[in-house]
Amino acid sequence: MVKTTGAGQKIDEATGTATVGHEWDGIEELNTPLPRWWVLTFYASILFAIGYVVVYPAIPLLSKGTEGLWGWTSRGQLAAEKTAGDAIHAKVRADLANVPIEELGGKPELLAAAVAGGKAAFRVNCVQCHGAQGGGSAPGTAAGYPNLADNDWLWGGDLKAIETTLINGIRSPDNTATRMSLMPNFGKDGILTPAQVTDVANHVLSLTGKAAPTGSGAALFAANCATCHGPEGKGLRQFGAPNLADAIWLYGGKPSEVRASVTVAHAGQMPAWGTRLDPVTIKMLAAYVHSLGGGEKFAPVPATPAAAPAATAAQGK
């Protein structure tokens, strides 16, 4: 005998649950009630949705959406966060403007902020030549962009020297105070014969053990090159003359490449960023370049003499 409810619904014998009256090929659907936790969660979701619509902007209208009781918008939050960020950024820039770059090493937090700002400025202005990591062009390529992450510096690698180089540029035609050094075209201009160019190149290569030294090459180097590169070829920063004895080559260290550099000087250029960027941005760039790994040690900050006590000062009068 089939059991039914008072409403005429069939009762499933196995579970004691009423069916909904649907049947398909002998399969019937049970009218199993939803779990209480699920029902409560569903009602809570409805209440939350109603509250959200009232409090926050939610319903689109013809000209604009509802604003909500709190007046909150994602654009407003973004504007507030941007204003707060701009205030912090402005304070950092103001602090950097008031601190000589030589003293940045003694202010770790400000130095870190300068490095972070310099990294962003480097990506915009410098990666085109020096690469994303400051590694410069590959050795032996015609580009000749220096590696800023090694410890080889033509004009100095402390913060002040880097800042000065950035401000004035290298052989920049639009700045009379630019870093300027001009190596003669020894071969092209006939200062040396091809054989003498080879002798000088071999002497330069001998400084790093890549060729056997010769007396003629040493004599030619002493007469034509030592004035700028020094008698031992280690370079002189006041002339921006590179160190030829450290096995670091901007335009390649193969015999053919060294002969080519002696024959026709390269005379690479860098813009004078002082006319393109503000002083604080340049200071941040200098801090970032210094942080790449090749920067020279910070100069010690001179100690400020302590003020004399009032009694001692009075006795000295």
Describe it for me?
The chain is mainly alpha-helical. It has 11 helices and 2 strands. It has helices at 36-55, 74-98, 108-125, 127-130, 159-168, 194-206, 215-224, 226-229, 255-263, 279-291, 310-315, and strands spanning 19-24, 27-30. The chain has a two-stranded antiparallel sheet. The radius of gyration is 38 Å and the shape is elongated. The protein starts with 18 loop residues before the first strand and ends with a helix.
Question: What is the first-to-last residue Cα distance?
Answer: 124 Å
Please identify the structural class as seen in this structure.
mainly alpha
**Which percent band covers the strand fraction?**
under 5%
Note the run of SSEs as H and E.
EEHHHHHHHHHHH
Profile the largest sheet: 2 strands, antiparallel
* Average pLDDT metric: 88
Radius of gyration: 38 Å
Strand order in space, largest sheet: 1-2
Shape: elongated
Contiguous runs where pLDDT drops below 50 for at least 5 residues: 307-317
Could you give a quick summary of the protein structure above?
The protein is mainly alpha-helical.
